[in-house]
Amino acid sequence: MFPMLRVGFALWFGLIPLLRLQGQPAAEAAAPLAARISSLLPRRATVSLEFQNLTALAPAEWLNFRGALEGELRKAGLDLAAATQPESRLRVVISENPRGLLFVAEISTKDARQVAMLPWNRAAPAETKPRIKIVKTPVWDQAEPVLDVVLLDSGSQLLVLSAGKVAGYRMADGNWTLSVQAFFTLARPPARDARGRLEFADGALRVYLPGTTCSSPLSSLRFTCSAASDPWPLNPRDTAFEVRWVTDRNLLESSGVPGAFYNAAAGLLAASDSRIKDRANDPVAGADGWGSDLAGVENPCGSSTLVIASAAGDGQAGDQVRVFEIANGQAAPASEALALPGAVTALWPADASGQVTLVVRNSKTGNYEASRLGLACAE
């Protein structure tokens, strides 16, 4: 997962009384927040401005707040014009808990770092139930890092990819039993936080690792490897979009896509600069706070495009995943967030339609836990 702010703001909600106004849209927080920010800066200061949204605010409400805050800061005398060397850097982060929102403004200069905070009891959204729910099915766990898994024979055969081997298991009496394992030599040392992809097609297995590509018949499981980063379809059901590993790095690249990226789905890219962008390299509204792991998945409840994306959890909790609907260049939540027992290390489209492979490193046991995520229509 690329570096993200892990939310530790929940404590502040217990220490700072919320403003007592009721039904306040987020945009109405712009004026009091700008007043707190401007009180910490000299008038006409040149400021660069960055936002991070860790909430489920609707894209329109988020954009309204951003525009309102920029306007209030200019009214307060701050110069937000892009400058190569601004006098101050301003980063505004918005998080939430069941009681409301918390705006945190971090102001950095050469000599100091200051923080302004504003709790906010935002307007309650109309009562709507998520249309989709995530169904998580555990598959496998082990101490060694799991890069990818494939299920075959209606789920009775399991293949597990690690950094230097593929292990095969058969289901017997409700338990997985090791049946075969094949080792292979990496052409190049693995990147830190190793990643890899295991693909089964036309009776053969293919392993894709940064700088190494291997293949083997499924029947004999004996790999032949080459020092190459061959292209492969990121989603088995969308063969038109092929990617390849960047040599010696755990990043991907693709023809016609500017720059390297961590993962991609439905035309969205988790770019190497820690932002979610479209293929035109423009930021995606509603995707602030996403992690670097995302995967496209078929919609069981309609025709709209869906993406499962990771995000950091609250405080010391693990990461979480959530389904988002992608429409008109914006992402909107379509499910509740699913809390996980640790950090997401892999999220890939599964070989089975309508499913995603998830790998999490359990923060308590240290084991790598592979699961399948499916979707169902919420009742």
Kindly summarize this structure in a few lines.
The chain is mainly beta. About 10% of the residues lie in helices and about 45% in strands.
Report on this structure.
- The protein is mainly beta.
- Helix content is 8%, strand content 46%.
- The chain has helices spanning 10-15, 30-38, 59-75, and strands at 47-53, 88-97, 100-108, 113-120, 132-142, 148-152, 157-161, 165-172, 175-183, 197-201, 204-209, 212-217, 224-226, 232-235, 238-245, 252-253, 261-265, 268-271, 276-278, 290-297, 305-311, 320-327, 330-333, 338-339, 342-349, 355-362, 368-377.
- The strands form 7 sheets. Strands 20, 21, 22, 23 and 24 form a 5-stranded antiparallel sheet that branches. Strands 1-2-3-4 form a 4-stranded mixed sheet. Strands 5-27-26-25 form a 4-stranded antiparallel sheet, with no helix packed on it.
- Helix 2 (30-38) crosses helix 3 (59-75).
What gap, in angstroms, lies between the N and C termini?
Answer: 32 Å
Largest sheet: 5 strands, antiparallel
List low-pLDDT spans: 1-22
Rounded average pLDDT: 86
Based on helices, strands and strand pairing, what is the structural class? mainly beta
Spell the H/E element sequence. Answer: HHEHEEEEEEEEEEEEEEEEEEEEEEEEEE
Q: What is the CATH domain class of the largest domain? A: Mainly Beta
What fraction of residues sit in β-strands? over 45%
**Which word captures the global form?**
elongated
Total helices: the number is 3
Oligomer: single chain
Total DSSP E strands = 27
* Annotated CATH topology of the largest domain: Methylamine Dehydrogenase, Chain H
| Fraction of residues in helix | under 10%
